């Protein structure tokens, strides 16, 4: 299908390579790209029809903006919409602090960025099977040179899929911890004071994924770890408080999530 499309649309090009993981595929595409902007779209996610035009306009009009992204909405595996929305609003004014605590861009299909960022901070880390996009955004933020522009409108749709999330959650934890460690090595003075809060948010996120997958004991374990690192996030951040309450009333929450997302559905890694 793609080959036929490219034959009649010469501005498109199909690239093929052996499976080397997500970051390997992205880097391969970026290495062959000739434009000044890069947009990433996973095969199961969707752009609104005006997302690219909107983001390119911001990049064209303000050379200090390095990354543009939008609010996102979750859709079920069958394409039906849910009411889950990621606003993309950073938790703090400081971008590095916000990204350490929460990947506010939300998912890998959302950000559109300048190609020159790759030359400045490097490609996606192919040693990371997960959280590779967070690592990249953290490297960009650590330069303290580039703005991240948020479009408040919902212009991205990310799909929640049935999968073996228990394995993926374990992998996410390992990768997130590795990403935080690498950030600390890069800028220890900036990162070290934030690490307890960053770990609290990380375990809160893992608790929410565990709850979504139906693994209540693991959700409770992770929320307990989050509380041990920094209880203040449950006061400062409504989403964190909602996660805590949802785990406390987990039997009701699990049934509700299954109805919303579809039977046996889980959050996409």
Give the topology.
Blueprint lengths: L1 H7 L13 H11 L4 E3 L6 E2 L3 H11 L3 E11 L5 E6 L8 H7 L10 E3 L1 H6 L10 H11 L4 E13 L5 H22 L1 H4 L3 H19 L2 H14 L3 H4 L1 H11 L1 H12 L8
Parallel strand pairs: 3-6
Antiparallel strand pairs: 1-5, 2-6, 3-4, 3-5
Helix pairs in contact: 4-6, 6-7, 7-9, 9-10, 9-12, 10-12, 12-13
Description:
52% of the residues lie in helices and 14% in strands. The relative contact order is 0.13. A hairpin with a 5-residue loop joins strand 3 (65-75) and strand 4 (81-86). The protein contains 13 helices and 6 strands. The protein has helices at residues 2-8, 22-32, 51-61, 95-101, 116-121, 132-142, 165-186, 188-191, 195-213, 216-229, 233-236, 238-248, 250-261, and strands at residues 37-39, 46-47, 65-75, 81-86, 112-114, 147-159. The two termini are 27 Å apart. The chain is α+β, with helices and mostly antiparallel strands and 269 residues long. Strands 1, 2, 3, 4, 5 and 6 form a 6-stranded mixed beta sheet that branches.
Mean pLDDT: 90
Q: How do the helices and strands follow one another from N- to C-terminus?
A: HHEEHEEHEHHEHHHHHHH
Cα shape: globular
Instruction: Report the count of strand segments.
Output: 6
* Poorly predicted sequence stretches spanning 5 or more consecutive residues: 264-269
Largest sheet: 6 strands, mixed
Query: What's the Cα radius of gyration?
Result: 19 Å
Number of helices: 13
Gist?
With 269 residues, the chain is α+β, with helices and mostly antiparallel strands.
């Amino acid at each position: 299908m793609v080959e036929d499309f490219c034959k009649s649309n010469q501005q498109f090009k199909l690239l093929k390579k052996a499976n080397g993981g997500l970051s390997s595929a992205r880097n391969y595409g970026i290495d062959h790209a000739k434009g000044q902007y890069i947009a990433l779209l996973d095969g199961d996610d969707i752009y609104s029809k005006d997302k690219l035009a909107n983001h390119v306009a911001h990049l064209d009009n303000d050379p200090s903006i390095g990354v543009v992204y939008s609010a996102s909405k979750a859709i079920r595996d069958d394409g039906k919409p849910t009411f889950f929305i990621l606003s993309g609003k950073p938790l703090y004014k400081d971008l590095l602090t916000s990204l350490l605590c929460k990947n506010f861009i939300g998912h890998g299909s959302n950000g559109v960025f300048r190609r020159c960022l790759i030359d400045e901070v490097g490609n996606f880390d192919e040693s990371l099977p997960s959280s590779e996009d967070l690592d990249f955004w953290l490297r960009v933020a650590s330069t303290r040179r580039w703005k991240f522009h948020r479009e408040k409108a919902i212009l991205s749709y990310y799909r929640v899929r049935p999968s073996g999330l228990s394995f993926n959650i374990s992998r996410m934890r390992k990768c997130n911890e590795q990403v935080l460690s690498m950030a600390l090595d890069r800028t220890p003075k900036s990162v070290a004071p934030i690490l307890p809060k960053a770990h609290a948010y990380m375990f809160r996120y893992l608790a929410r994924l565990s709850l979504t997958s139906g693994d209540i004991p693991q959700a409770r374990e992770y929320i307990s770890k989050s509380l041990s690192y920094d209880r203040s996030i449950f006061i400062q951040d409504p989403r964190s408080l909602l996660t805590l309450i949802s785990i406390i009333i987990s039997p009701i929450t699990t049934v509700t999530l299954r109805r919303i997302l579809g039977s046996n559905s889980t959050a996409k890694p």
